[in-house]
Design a protein that fits this description.
- It is built from 13 helices and ten strands.
- By secondary structure, the protein is of the alpha/beta class.
- The N terminus is likely disordered.
Length: 323
């Protein structure tokens, strides 16, 4: 009887340790306000996998998911302490930090740029040199102008060799209506597919291949105060997100179905194809490169997007990489 009781105890202890190893958390749940970078889209599939599969709750986190009214809101609300954790972009984190906002990247969702210079295949554009004399549409002054300047320079062009036109966020309509010859800021995993579904053949320059340093497209951010006062919460969040990314990679169709269940209005061919185009770019590791942060900050400074550099350690931390 004693041996039976002992064996049962060993089995139960082993099960408990196994569950802990998978991220199961015993204790009161911690409420976390979490904001996406923009409206739900296939970039966020791992987040919804982690939510719907209970990966955050297994880490003792009760998430309150919020959708921003403006893509600039997440960073500002995190800095102000009104949101605990959010999704943002390496460029905007770097710009915000240079302006004194106390925000820092604590993890990665999408590990490389998605931005391109995009054009229709029949535009006559084949190389960056062909942008000469062309009308180029943009949405975000400063950053997108820097991307365009770098790509154009790889073709021997300078500012003034092309015409910049502010088209707000009407990238696809501006191309289809021939308002512009090319656009900067179109994503290879979304606008390209939008155009292809319209029956158009698309050309693009992937910016990191034409003079722009590699950067992380989507990062997880928290404020300095949150990092200091709630490090365990941040660590659990990143661990759950990492598992969501891993499960998305392992079972992509199941992950996409999970996303569609949570967002039924998005169940269409555009979002299906956009997800599979995004799949290769989800972060394979949560380890952020110091050199990548440094080089991209130097790029923004050289192009006048920021006027002051921050110490690199203020831009990101690897303190929460799952072990």
């Amino acid at each position: 009887m004693r041996w039976t009781t002992f064996l049962i105890g060993v089995i139960l202890m082993g099960l408990a340790l196994s569950l802990l190893g998978q991220g199961t958390f015993a204790g009161a749940a911690t409420s976390v306000t979490f904001m996406l970078d923009w409206f739900p889209n296939p970039d966020h599939v791992p987040v919804y996998v982690a939510l719907q599969k209970g990966l955050f709750s297994q880490e003792g986190l009760r998430l309150r998911l919020q959708i921003p009214a403006d893509p600039n809101d997440p960073l500002k609300l995190v800095a102000a302490g009104k949101v605990d954790i959010a999704i943002s972009y390496q460029p905007t984190v770097t710009i915000a930090r240079s302006q004194g906002l106390p925000v820092k990247s604590v993890g990665i969702l999408i590990g490389q740029p998605l931005n391109t210079i995009m054009f229709l295949a029949d535009s006559g554009i084949r190389t960056p040199a062909d942008l000469k004399g062309k009308r180029i549409g943009y949405s975000v002054a400063g950053f997108e102008e820097a991307l365009l300047s770098a790509v154009a320079a790889s073709g021997g062009l300078q500012k003034g060799d092309y015409q910049l036109i502010n088209i707000a966020f009407n990238l696809t309509p501006a191309l289809l209506s021939r308002q512009v010859d090319a656009v900067v800021g179109a994503y290879r995993n979304f606008e390209r597919i939008q155009l292809e579904l319209k029956g158009k053949k698309v050309g693009m320059f992937e910016v990191e291949k034409y003079g722009v340093p590699e950067y992380y497209e989507l990062v997880v951010i928290a404020s300095d105060q949150t990092i200091q006062k709630q490090p365990e919460m941040v660590k659990r969040f990143i661990r759950a997100l990492s598992r969501g990314i891993a499960q998305t990679r392992e079972n992509p169709q199941e992950a996409l179905n999970t996303f569609f269940v949570a967002n039924p209005k998005l169940r269409d061919e555009l979002n299906r194809r956009a997800f599979f185009a995004t799949l290769p770019y989800f972060a394979r590791s949560q380890v952020q490169s110091r050199e990548r942060w440094q080089r991209f900050q130097d790029f923004l400074f050289a192009h006048g997007v920021i006027t002051k550099k921050s110490p690199v350690d203020e831009l990101f931390t690897n303190a929460f990489v799952p072990r």
